[in-house]
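Fold this sequence, please.
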Amino acid sequence: MKEVNTVDIADVAMELLPVIDAVDTRASAGGLPRWLKRQVPKGNGNHRTARLLEELGLETVCDNAKCPNRMECYSQSTATFMILGNVCTRPCGFCSVSRGRPDDVEADEPQRVAEAAHRLELKHVVITSVTRDDLPDHGAEHFYRCVVAVRERTGASVEVLTPDFIGYPAAIDRVIDSAPEVFNHNTETVPRLYRKVRGPKSQYRWTLELLRRVKERNPQIRTKTGLMLGLGETRQELLDVLADLRDYGCDFLTLGQYLQPGASYMPVDRYVHPDEFDELGRIAKQLGFVKVASGPFVRSSYHARDMAETDVSRSDAHG
């Protein structure tokens, strides 16, 4: 596994200094900056996708997390399926998904997800979920069944975006048993902000160990993670996290702008300029990430199929 230290990061960062327009990126400057304003895609594709999801009684993270790319993805007949209901047991400060006491698990959901993937003719299927600390296995068996059902119905590659399953490594192992092509678990932010952003149960080191565990148990699975920027992290803190992720063998990385989903959620500390996102993407590539998506509107499943089709075996990412 490739070794990366803080000296390496400093050297790379000095070579790739950002070129930022003369614009105030502080959130307190008022209003969204121009690069966070864009047109809504037109056409009937998004209506077709929405109707299909409603017909099959399925949830998506696109809707529940108020993803800014929802209309674009729906118009292209794709979506990120959210299983295990739409109520989460964790009170994360950044997420608009409802929290509280979840409903019972729906036994036929794997088949409905598979049917939707089939009708949408998806070649790569992304499955995520709310956190279900209330379940004995944290929902791992349901994840397994959904992956298997989609693969049997469609033959598509599958990416899982899981909760942390904290304190229950057997849950991680059960999802690994389904052999998804990509195992994604979001780091979200830097260690200093973990409790504030992700709540008291989440732990930065557990996130890293989860990614390592996937690689150790099945080296063929590509690991992936994402971070939100603009929460108050420093540049050095972010670079240190990137170094940790590479040291733990993470293959794919997404970096995107945090956008406050409502007044009761964590405020935005600053809006990161697109040039800075480009620079961070170049740094991440030089640190050894096989594929990086970095930009204001990038989210966990942004261009997920492109990443999934990357041939990790031909890269030198693991030294």
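The chain has one domain: 6-314. Residues 1-24, 314-319 have pLDDT under 50 and may be disordered.
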